[in-house]
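1st attempt posting a full record on here, be nice pls
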Amino acid sequence: MPDKITGAIVQAQRLFGDPDDMLYIITENLNTFRELYNKRLTALPHVLRLNSTLVMKKIVKKELPIEG
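the predicted structure (as tokens):
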């Protein structure tokens, strides 16, 4: 069962190049993000370094017109 911290990860992608992986994380506040970053993500095996970018404001959100 995901908890408040690991449940914040809403999407994960494997990338070509650097960085190797990208996580999309939504937290209720900066303290929750810090806890996730400092206690969980840095403790993962094989994680050598982390880089984060915080979104200030969502300007446009469009869904892709993909039919299945």
